[in-house]
């Protein structure tokens, strides 16, 4: 309950919206190399997040009570996010 969700890499916030529909509360971070990470079904989005803000690796993007959906895209195509953690 109320677990912190951290950014896996440094990057720029390109989307942060509450009640965005199917993804509920969602944050999208753009990283180098055309990589984006998507954190959705958040219970809370960090109040310090604003679109355009640069964040370091490990920055708290939000909190989750039950489930988190973590996705990644590279060159606008979904990739297996486990490939990010070698």
In words, what does this structure look like?
By secondary structure, the chain is an all-beta fold. It is built from no helices and nine strands. The chain has strands at residues 3-6, 11-17, 25-31, 35-42, 44-45, 54-55, 60-64, 69-74, 77-79. The chain has a six-stranded antiparallel β-sheet, with no helix packed on it. Strands 1-7-5 form a three-stranded antiparallel β-sheet, with no helix packed on it. A hairpin with a 2-residue loop joins strand 8 and strand 9 (77-79).
SSE layout:
Layout: E1 3-6, E2 11-17, E3 25-31, E4 35-42, E5 44-45, E6 54-55, E7 60-64, E8 69-74, E9 77-79
Residue share in helix? under 10%
Distance between the termini: 28 Å
Structural class: mainly beta
**Share of β-strand residues:** over 45%
User: Quaternary arrangement of the chains shown?
Assistant: single chain
The overall average pLDDT, rounded, is: 95
The parts where pLDDT drops under 50 for at least 5 residues are none
Radius of gyration: 12 Å
How many strand units? 9
How many H/I helical runs? 0
The global form is: globular
In the sheet with the most strands, the strands line up as 6-2-3-4-8-9
List the secondary-structure elements in sequence, H or E. Answer: EEEEEEEEE
* Largest sheet entry: 6 strands, antiparallel
């Amino acid at each position: 309950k109320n677990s912190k969700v951290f950014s896996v890499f440094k990057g720029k916030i390109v989307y942060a919206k509450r009640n965005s529909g199917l993804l509920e509360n969602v944050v999208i971070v753009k990283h180098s190399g055309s990589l984006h990470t998507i954190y959705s079904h958040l219970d809370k989005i960090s109040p310090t997040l604003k679109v355009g803000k640069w964040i370091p690796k490990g920055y708290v993007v939000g909190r989750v009570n039950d489930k988190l959906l973590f996705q990644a895209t590279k060159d606008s195509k979904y990739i297996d996010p486990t490939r990010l953690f070698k």
